[in-house]
Amino acid sequence: MTHKTTQLRDAISFALIAGTTALAGTGVAFAQDAPPAEQQATTLDRIEVTGSRIRSVDAETSQPVLVLSREDIQKQGVTSVAEVLNRISAAGPAINRTFNNGGDGSSTISLRNLGDSRTLVLVDGRRWVSSLGGAVDLNTIPSSIVERIEVLKDGASAIYGSDAIAGVVNIITRDNYEGAEVSTHLGQFDKGDGDRKTISATIGANTDRSNVVINLSRVEEGSVMAGDREQSADPVFGLKTRSGFSANGKIWNNAPIVDGDPDADDYNPTGFGNLTVVPPGSTGIGPDGQQRYGLDQFVPYTSAAHGYNYATDNYLLTPQTRTALYLKGRFDITDSISFVTDALYNERRSEQQLAGFPLSGGTDLGNAPDTALSGESYFNPYNVAYGGDGRDVQWSRRLTEQNRVYQQNVKTFHTYVGFTGNFQFADRYFNWDVGYNFNKSDQEDAQIGDANMLAVTAGVGPSFLDTDGVVKCGAPGAVIDGCVPFNPLAPAGTMPQEQLAAILFTAQDAFQSRSESFTANLSGEIVALPGGMMGFAAGIESRKESGFDRPDAFVAAGYTSGNARLPTAGAYDLDEIYAELLLPVLSDVPFAQLLEFSLASRYSDYSNFGDTVNSKFGFKWKPIEDLMVRGNWAEGFRAPSIQTLFRGTADSFESFGDICSADNPGRTSTIAAACAADGVPANFIQQTNAGFGFNGQTIYPFSFGGNPNAGPETSTSKTLGLVYSPSYVQGLDITLDWWNVEIEGALSTPTVATILDQCYAQGNQTACALFSRRADNHQIDQLLMAPSNLAVIDVEGYDLGVNYRMPETAYGRFNLGLNASYTAKYDIQSTPDAEAENVVGMYFDRDPNWRLRANASLDWSMGDFGVTWISRYYSSLVEDCGFGALCSDPDRRIDAGPAPRNKLGATTYHDMQARYELPWNGTVKVGVNNVFGKRAPTSYTAFANSFDPQYDIPDSSYIYMEYVQRF
């Protein structure tokens, strides 16, 4: 481990020496008393707070807004905007760097656990480029350019339009900066892996009429392998489970021939998976290097002895690098008109890695065309020429010689140009802005390690040993040119390079997302009301969204071992107009130090589904100076994304339980009768890629597709809260908000289980038409999953915020903070008529539904020193569990029968940072995240690693040093 920690250790040592030297030379610096209040200048600038376009001197609105300052962000020891946002208590599960299988290097934010596409992300109040699925990749926004982040925890479609259902994240970038600054971050886990290195430089300059800010940043984040942590080193923690795809060649149909027919028992559970070739080191029967093995060199296959542990080949934390250049400028054309612009170029290179492809051959293993090893293949141990019966061999082998690697190169371009200004009319003050916003993301993917199934099909066909000692495709006198014979039965690590080169394939895919808009806004004051001036804002927006997914031609044609998918392409445009009013009704009267109402409405006209109107109403009331009561009611909507509308059909090997399988523990007489009516035998057993049994991964690819008839989701959001700042405890602020979000017509893609239940248990013939079964073995071989506006979601909870800035003492200044989000209800209905299921406290694969998330912090500073301690809490969860004694409650029963569950315990992480302000205008910080190396709670339904990717990397403390030098 020491050879990996030298660089970080040296950096921390340097920082500590520098700090000690500075302390020795200057003594302990205590904080100076602030000047008297009457000597401090106070400027009440009107600002625009996220959730309203009306500028006001009051930062508190009728809606709950969480503000993360640049200082708050820098105390967390993280290197991305995504990490910052996914730590807040209102955040639900979202994709991040721990997503290896199924990840693409992006990171998103999902407020209220309502999905990342229902959380609107803005940068400087303007829309950012989103993926084809409608989510914003936060890795396209460098953390070094962030001045603050405002999180509106309420719906805001009346102000911002589509997607603002769960809330709005507004990332405010640095501007009006003068000077220069260089910062760096070096860190790694205490196990010596997961290195992170960042460096950024910012320079800003002012003149009498202009300002420009330029930032250049580079982030390098290293990987962690799943095999390097105990919890993720096996496919299922606590069990030595192994893949049914042995690293050595494996024969599946070695059962005795019945009635002279070599194919009679190809589909025979007792005859499948019995033989595997002996481990490497054995001697082949054929000429040296030809690796043909006889039946005497195969042994009965057992998972314990021959199964493959694919987990150790996978990334646990995926690597990526990000390079960005950012520019922001302002030029005052006149005293009241300014030209403003900002631009960004961000390039992300990321990678995921999985174990070598689990390749198989033969239609009984789900392959089409039939890639069974020909009975006339030189490598077939049943070849008649070598005394066999000439049967075609159903085979499998994991290509351990080449891991599957998925690489992304994502280039994001952003430009905004516009004009802003102010004017006076009729003794009223107005602000305006007009501008053009352009965002584009171009992504190029390389998919390495899949097989060219055309080459495999040809390679496992007839072959022979020619007179020159070379194995060739075809037969003597009829050689097939361009074909390389393939031996799928070779032991692990012995596949000849020429065979690998012939079958391996690298796919090249291209994606693009593009957004451009013209906006114009006007705000100001209209008339005087008893409580103050009536404010207003109004504006228009014209926007176009477009994008495409262009898979490699081989992928689109289905010629690779990976999942096939067809191209996606589409576009839509819209025009919108909105208006907002702020009505201060009363002020400075008994029981109404302040009473104001806010109204807003937005009209949106979409080219694909038509128009929609969404409105909101809010109020803010201060019965006394110390207490504010606030509330809000808002309509919202989310337009279907390009992927939802135009997605080309894509294959997916889904894990599911066939409801008709005889070993289905929930099988009822109604289900059995429906299955029988569909021609499924009573003794039918589901086949999976690991053999047979209920609830496994299908051997036949199912399909996802788009729905051009999908419409918008609609929502209603409600909040009611208190803000209490007692005058008798200076520096104490307490907020408590109740919130509720109801979504109708929610876009959701039904799972395989839902489709099968609708068909066989509910008798829904529309659902039955979405899949088909093979006539010979009754396995489901085709199934289509497409999104539709059927689901209903109702979420309710409470947010608590406490912040206490204690008076300065001789021992320094203390600041205590607490932010908590409690979810009381999360009801989901798959259709409006279905029974609601409350999933609060339940864990589903990559979908934890925590009842409570909370962050507590203690910050201490004295003079040039400061220390911050942060605790992050995740409440416990329960999951369905099928792993016997490993389950925490294996004997649990319900009316329908056994229903074992497993508890994922509550988890608290602790982070610490110490910092020192150096005399030469520098700052050094040393910190540890997950101080005690807390292990994530073990899950037996998590897709990989036996824990959910929202938790920290287990058994690891992340240690880092940061240095900032200002000029």
From TrEMBL:
All copies of domain TonB-dependent receptor-like beta-barrel, residue ranges: 518-931
Membrane topology summary: Multi-pass membrane protein
Keywords from the UniProt entry: Cell outer membrane, Membrane, Signal, TonB box, Transmembrane, Transmembrane beta strand, Transport
Principal subcellular localisation of the protein: membrane
InterPro entries, per the entry: Beta-barrel_TonB, Beta-barrel_TonB_sf, Plug_dom, Plug_dom_sf, TonB-dep_rcpt-like
Pfam families, per database record: Plug, TonB_dep_Rec_b-barrel
GO CC annotation terms, alphabetical: cell outer membrane
Domain of life, source organism: Bacteria
Record protein name field: TonB-dependent receptor
SUPFAM superfamilies: Porins
Gene3D superfamilies assigned: TonB-dependent receptor, beta-barrel domain (2.40.170.20), TonB-dependent receptor, plug domain (2.170.130.10)
Signal peptide: 1-31
Membership in a protein family: Belongs to the TonB-dependent receptor family.
Intracellular or extracellular location(s): Cell outer membrane
TonB-dependent receptor plug domain residues: 59-168
